[in-house]
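dumping this here before i forget
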Amino acid sequence: MQIKDIIKGIEAEVIGDVALKVGDVQFDSRKVRRGSLFVAQRGTIVDGHNYIGAAVAQGAAAVVCEELTAEVPADVVVVKVKDSSLALGQIAANYYGRPSERLALVGITGTNGKTTTVTLLHRLFRNLGYHVGLISTIINKIDEAEVATSHTTPDALELNRLLAAMVDAGCQYCFMEVSSHAVVQKRIAGLHFAGAIFSNITHDHLDFHRTMANYIAAKKGFFDMLPKEAWALTNVDDRNGKVMVQNCKAKVMTYALQREADFRCKLIENTFQGMYLNVQGSEVWCRLVGRFNAYNLMAIYGAAVMCGADKAEVLRQLSLLEPAPGRFQYIGDGKVVGIVDYAHTPDALLNVLTTIDEVRQKSQSIITVVGCGGDRDRTKRPEMAKIAAEGSDKVVLTTDNPRSEEPDAILNDMEQGLSAQQKCRAVRITDRRKAIRTACMMAHDGDIVLVAGKGHEKYQEVKGVRSHFDDVEELGAALAEREASKNDN
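structure:
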C-alpha cells in the first residue's frame, strides 16, 4: 500500500515520497523487515523512538514518529505526527481497509461484567442466525472458530487484522471488551463503533491509573469518541452511569433494575439453578444466577434491541443462554455446592458472596478460597480479604498468580484487612491446590465452597513461569477426593 493511503486522514508532516509502497506496518522494531513502515510509539515502559535506528537498519522504508531521534537515509520516508499511538490506530485501520466500518462493532467497558456480556451477546446473535465476531479476555472468535488472546483488548494492528478477517468471513456484528488500558493507550483509535455499553465502575487497576478519577476518565474516554450515529447504553443504577455519557454525541439509552430506565427489569426469584425476571413487563426464566447477572442480561437485552433484533425473540434467547466459563460456574457433587468465579476485584467478590447468601439455606456455610495477584494493585488486597471474611463462615487465603512477588508478602497484605476475630476464621495456605482441597475437606454436606479469582484462566504464574492450573478442574478433583475419603471412613 502507498504511504499516502496508509496515512489518509492523519495530520502529519511528510518528508519523502508519499507514493512509496510499503509491505507491512510494525510498531515492534524486532519485527521490521525490508519495506516495512515502522511506527515509533511512546509506551508505558519502552519508547519506540529509541529504536528508530534499529528499525531502519533492518530495512524499514518509512518511519512514523513524533520526533526523529536517529539519522535515516534519504530514501526512508519520515512521517512526523503529534501522537504516534493515535496515528498507529488510524494507520492500522487504513491498512486493513477500515474493517470496523464494514460491520456493526459494539464495545463494552466497565469493571465487571464485560466478558459475560460480550460472550452471551455473541451466542445470542449466533442463535439468531447472524455471522458474528467476538473479542474477549477468554477467547477471540470468528463465528465458532476460536483464536486465543492474551489481552483484554489486542493492539491496534491485531485488532484491525482480526476485524478484517471477520469481515472477510461475512460477519455482520462484532462484540468486544474495551479495557481502560486500551482507551488510555489508544489501542482502539481509528475504530468505528456502532454501539457502546457501560456496566459499572468499582475499585480496580489503580496500579495503572493511580486514582479513581483517572480510571473513570479512561472509561468515559470510550464514550467521548463515539460518532453521533452510534448508540450508547449505560447502567444508571451505577453512580457513574450518567457521567459516562455526559456530552456524548451518540444516542443515549439507559438500563437499570432500581431506577427508571429505557430498559428495566425486576428480579423476581433467585436460585442456584437460575433467575426468574420480569423484563419490560414480560416474565422470563434465565439460567444465570445473581443480581449482577440480571444487570448483564439487561445490558444484553438492551444492546440486542438497539442492534435491531426482535424483542420477543431476544427474550426467548435469553432463557437459553448459559453462563460464560468461570463466571459463577456451578461444580456440584451432590453433597457440597462448588462455585468457581473470576471475581478478582472487591466489588465482584462482594457480588458473588451476596448472591450466594441470598440463595443459600440458613444451614449452609460458605467457605471461600481467595487470593490476590502479584505485581498488581496492592491497595485492594486487604479489602478483598475483609469482604471474603465478612461474607463467609470460613476463609482460605492463598495465591492467585503471585508473578514476581513472594506469596507470603501478598497474604500479609491481605491479612491487614482482617480483624482479630476474622483471623480466627481464616487460614493461610500459599499452595492454591492445597488451599482448594483444604476448603473442601472443611466443608460439611450441603455447604458451599467458593473458589474466587481465576475463573476461566488455565494457568498459575509464579516467578515468571506459567504452569497449567484450572480452578474448575481442581475444585472438581477436590470434591471427588472429599467424597472418596468419606466413603473410605
